[in-house]
Amino acid sequence: MKSLFGKMYLIYIAVIIISFIAIILVLSTTFEDYFMNQKEKTLIEQCEKIQEQYSLVYERGPMYIDELKQEMAALDKYLNARIWWVNRLGEIYVDSEIDDASWIGEKLTQEEIEEVFKGYIIKRKGQFRNFFEAQVLTIGYPIIVEDKVVIALFMHAPIPEIKRTISDVYRITMAALSFSILITSVGVFFLSRNIKRDIKNLNEAVKFVSKGNFEKRLTIKRKDELGQLAENFNFMAEDLHKQEELRRSFISNLSHDIRSPLTSIRGFLQAILDGTIPKEKQDKYLKIALSESDRLTKMANDILDLSKMESGEVHISKTEFSINNLMINEID
To answer: How far apart are CA 275 and CA 45, in angstroms?
Structure first.
């Protein structure tokens, strides 16, 4: 593609597409990390609340334990996360899924619970043995009463559910980005076309000036570099127009000044050759013709000096002089 408009448009679109691909690559890696971290944070916050509620139940008596189990069942639905209470033997003795008691009494391995009973919060991603069909995000949280870990609290959130949320956000983001690219492409199209039009006008104006038409002016109303170029072009054309008028005036005056002495010289020489002027007066008119030729020579030297000044061959040096002597010499 040879046109400037095509090149600019292709460059803009290429930059947009590359940026779009880069954003997709970044989003694909950051979205999952962000939502996983947010899910971990939410689960840990709920574990802390269960810790507070269990402490209250411990103080008020075991009669309130069923109330806490009901709250855990509601939390299960709200978070879409399975919640277990596990004792030091690794036995699951409370499950948030009230209607499904099949896992009650199931035992976890010592490796799965020992870090929690040491007081550490554990985070795991992946298959949790054969308990769940899909991969889960597991949080193990120690329930501490009187500086002692009494329960290992486990929360399991299905990772596919998290990924579905990521996918929904990802689709919305992609739609917004696609719409932005469409709008940007249209804007770039009109911007590139306007720049092409202004450059075309500038190019045509330069062609006019190159042919000696110094009256051409641009009407580009822009505040950027292209507008400054158009403004400078107008200044240049105006300056060239003035110089052309001075040149024509100079040539007209010069032609008149040269024609006068040439006419005198030619007339006197013709009169001498024709015998119109007597021989005793020929010296007088020959001296006049010589004076006129000197005048022509001076004019030619002045033109030569002017040409040298315009081409930069003449260097002016400043010296001190007496203006009185200059005036006296001119009078003489």
So the answer is: 130
- Residue in this structure with the two tokens 């004792």, named with its chain if needed: 87
| Helix, strand, coil content of the chain in percent (nearest 5) | 70, 10, 20
Contact 268, 285 (CB under 8 A): yes
Question: Sorting pLDDT into bands at 50, 70 and 90, what band is 313?
Answer: low
Structure tokens at 294: 């000197």
pLDDT grade for 3, boundaries at 50, 70 and 90: low
- The gap from C-alpha 283 to its chain's centroid, in whole angstroms, comes to 85
| pLDDT at residue number 167 | 77
User: Looking at this protein, which amino acid is placed at residue 198?
Assistant: D
* CA angle in degrees (0–180, nearest 5) for 317-323-325: 110
Distance in angstroms (rounded) separating the CA atoms of residues 178 and 298? 78
142 confidence band (pLDDT: 50, 70, 90): very high
Q: Tell me if 130 sits within 8 A of 155, measured CB to CB.
A: no
Query: pLDDT by residue (tens digit) across 105-137?
Result: 888 888 888 899 999 999 888 888 778 888 888
CA dihedral 26, 29, 33, 35 (to 10 degrees): 80
Stretch (H or E) spanning 136 = strand 136-145
Closest CA to 27 of 141, 173, 157: 173
Query: Measured between alpha carbons, how far apart are the two ends of the chain, in Å?
Result: 75
Q: Is the pLDDT of residue 25 over 80?
A: no
What DSSP string describes 5-57?
HHHHHHHHHHHHHHHHHHHHHHHHHHHHHHHHHHHHHHHHHHHHHHHHHHHHH
